[in-house]
Structure formats: structure tokens, C-alpha cells
Amino acid sequence: xxxxxxxxxxxxxxxxxxxxxxxxxxxxxxxxxxxxxxxxxxxxxxxxxxxxxxxxxxxxxxxxxxxxxxxxxxxxxxxxxxxxxxxxxxxxxxxxxxxxxxxxxxxxxxxxxxxxxxxxxxxxxxxxxxxxxxxxxxxxxxxxxxxxxxxxxxxxxxxxxxxxxxxxxxxxxxxxxxxxxxxxxxxxxxxxxxxxxxxxxxxxxxxxxxxxxxxxxxxxxxxxxxxxxxxxxxxxxxxxxxxxxxxxxxxxxxxxxxxxxxxxxxxxxxxxxxxxxxxxxxxxxxxxxxxxxxxxxxxxxxxxxxxxxxxxxxxxxxxxxxxxxxxxxxxxxxxxxxxxxxxxxxxxxxxxxxxxxxxxxxxxxxxxxxxxxxxxxxxxxxxxxxxxxxxxxxxxxxxxxxxxxxxxxxxxxxxxxxxxxxxxxxxxxxxxxxxxxxxxxxxxxxxxxxxxxxxxxxxxxxxxxxxxxxxxxxxxxxxxxxxxxxxxxxxxxxxxxxxxxxxxxxxxxxxxxxxxxxxxxxxxxxxxxxxxxxxxxxxxxxxxxxxxx
Length: 549
Prior knowledge:
Number of helices: 20
Strand order of the largest sheet: 1-9-5-6-7-4
Low-confidence stretches: none
CATH topology of the largest domain: Amino acid/polyamine transporter I
Radius of gyration: 23 Å
Number of domains: 2
Number of strands: 9
Shape: globular
Order of helices and strands: HHHHHHHHHHHHHHHEEEEEEEEEHHHHH
Strand content: 5-15%
CATH architecture of the largest domain: Up-down Bundle
Mean pLDDT: 85
CATH class of the largest domain: Mainly Alpha
Helix content: 55-70%
């Protein structure tokens, strides 16, 4: 498994490296200016469209969903564990500065989302008016052929490649990431075996996805607004009881966005580049801006005007990143769980011994009887190490045994020279959503345990439901409707398999959930630039007609 994750890390370093993320920002800025700062229209006209208050365009047309249902379905894929577990990963690895770069993706993401959804609406397949198909694969197929007949073959190939990447990201980010986080938080708080959580989620998801996009839209229209409201209210409570820390927290976010974040406690430090990459990557994962997935849900909308759904879609990154992600980040930073102290103190750190070629681990370590009683068998912990070049890292282990016989079974760290153990003890590992829950608990005991666990499960299930539909559209594009049922069965089986213990840390789940993102970006961004003039022409024509009455 370690070799597999090393390969996936290398792929991510290329496909989601600094050049790719800078291109994403650049394209977002282009469409921000080209649309005349369309973010403001999303916040005004988009809200009117959601309320059905725009005469002549708020009813009628081909499609299966209302504007509100389509936005809710798309939000059920974006407002989810990316906002809870993804933000926690960004902060725990990238530091406070990662939050600033999440904001940047959120802002330009509003323009990106408006453009890609408008394109999808222009080129969607409405041969079945009650079940339309759309997304980047259809934009590639139809848009490039319209641009030039010579590009028709390229459009078919690009559409197929995007569909493959879409299915892969659905399986990893839309399925495995969600199932792992939900099962992990249930295990951490309630001792529920992860396989049991996986089985329950698989059954619940199967019960919904068999009903198709109409059932998905109906459930999302109720579940997403309810859970968003509860989550934001709880976050505002935590911020209220820690109000005096808010100014310093914002100052720390801006400072660490442009300078290294100092190591301390459980946080091993982060350079500006790490903050940039993890902030951008996790916001990209959360908001899905520019990757071409959300247009699939929006393409099912019922409307006479393609541009209207593009305007509504601009609200998605605002709600997802600039509201919900910000709330999570502030709660984690203000409560201090991101750089928490050790859960087990020691007088002298254990020596690292070579247990294999270039494999280092502490000598056997039995937990003292006074060690935190909450540490039980199966809990993951880590110690902080430092190499000769002052680079810090984490060496993980798992608690084994019971009571006074508890000890730690370490997973060796690979290094040519033996690293040093620093900091004052053993740290509890709070991966992904568990870190967010612990932050809420620190403000009011039980708040994270119950509210965040409930939110994680609701968001995970809603995300898995919507992403199953996204992947299904990729399957239909590649192989037709005959493969839909086998795909749905495979989807539900993978939920269960993910919870069998193959993924162990938040870094591993970050690696596996983002492996296909770069490929989706590499196809979608160039297509947006090639066909962006058509989207912007339709966009400005729509508002010109609105002004002229």
C-alpha cells in the first residue's frame, strides 16, 4: 500500500501542482472580468431565480428539476465532507494560510461555475426532455464540432477521457472519501466498527439512487438546506463564545498565506507553497469549480433560458467555500485543535531504532497507566519527528491492548538517516472530520460528537448519492444505459469496501480522493477557454434582453 500511495502522490504532484493551480486562478480571473464581475449577478439575480420571481423565465422549458432543486442537488455534492473533513485536512497540513487560498478559489470559482454551467446548458442533450444529459463530455462532443468540423474527432476523444476521469473521481472523491470520513467519526466517538458503518451507508445510498435524478433532487432539496442551516448556526455559536480571538485568527490567516506557518504541537509547520497547494486543492475539491462535474446536475434543470442556470450556479462556490468552509476553518483555528498539545506526556522521548532497511520506529512503548483513558485499542496516534534538514513529519501508530497493558504499535518511517523525535509526547490523531468535531467539542462538550457526526453522515450520504449520478452520466456517455445497473451495484459495494481499513490517515485519503481532479481540470479548462466566447455571448445577450424588457 505504501508504494501505491507513493505513486499516487507523484501523479498528484504533476497534475495538481503549482502550474495547474495558477492556471485555474488565471482562467477564473479571465471569466470574472469577461462576465463583468458576474459574481454580483449570482448574488442578486441568482437569488431571484431561485425564488421563482423572474417573469418569463422561472417556469417552462425542457428538464426535470427546478432551479432550487438543481442547485440543491449540485450543493449536495459540494457542501459536504469537503467542507468538514476537507477543510480540516487543508488546515492540519497547510496551516492557517490555506484558508486564504480557499477564499480565492471561492471568489473566482463563482465565475468559473457560471461559465461551465452555461456551456453545459447550451450543449446539453434534451432528446429525452424529462431526463436531459449534460456536462463537459457533451460540451466537448458538440461544442468542439460546432467550433470546427475538424475538431469533431478531438471532441469525441476529449469527452471520453473526461468521462473516465469523472468516474474515477466519483469513485475516489465522491464515494471513498465520504464513506471513510463518516465511518471514522462514528468509530472515534461511538466505537462503531467501520465495516458496519459502511454497510449501513451502502444500503441507504442504494435505496435512493435507484430512483434516479428526480428522487435525488427531491431529497437534496430538503436535506441540504436543513443540514447547512444547523451546521452554520452551531459554528456561529462557537465563534460567539470565542469572539475575542476572531481578529487574531484573521490576522494569522493573512500572515500565513504569504509566509511559512510556524510548527508547534500537533502541527508540523507549512511553507507558503504548501498552504497555497492544500488551500487551493481542498477548495477545488469542495466547490468543484472548473472541474466540470456540477454542470451535470445543473443540466437537468427545467428552463427556457440556458444562462439562468449558469447564474444560479454561481451561488454554489459562495455558499460552499465562502460561507460553510470559512465557518469550519475559523472553528478549527479559533479553538486551537489544529496545533493541540500531546495527549500523553513523557520525560524523555523514545529512541528510534532501525527495524528494516531505512525503516525507523520507536522502541516498544507501553502507555503509562495515567495516560488519557479515552485512548482505546484501534485509536491512531503519532509522534513528531525532525530530519537533519529540520523538516518535520509524523510517525503514526495504533493503540493496542486494554487498560494498564495498552501499548502502541508503530508504522515505520522511511528515511536514510534516523530522524529525531521532538515535541513532548504522543499526539492523538484526529483525521479529517474528526478534527472538526473535536473543535466543536472544545467549545461545548458533546456539540461535535452529536452535531458534527450527524452532519458528516448526512453530507456524506447526500454527496455519495449525487456523485453516483455524476459517474452514472459518464457511464451512459461511454457505454449507454445498459451499464447503469452494474455501475450502481459497484458504487454501493465500494462504499462498504472502503470501510474495511485499507485507508489509514488523512494524508492518504487526501491523496486518493484527488488523484483524478487534475485530469478533469486538464480537459475542462482548455475547453472553457476555447468555447468561452459562446458562453459569454449568451450571458451578455441574456442580460441585455433583461435590461431592454
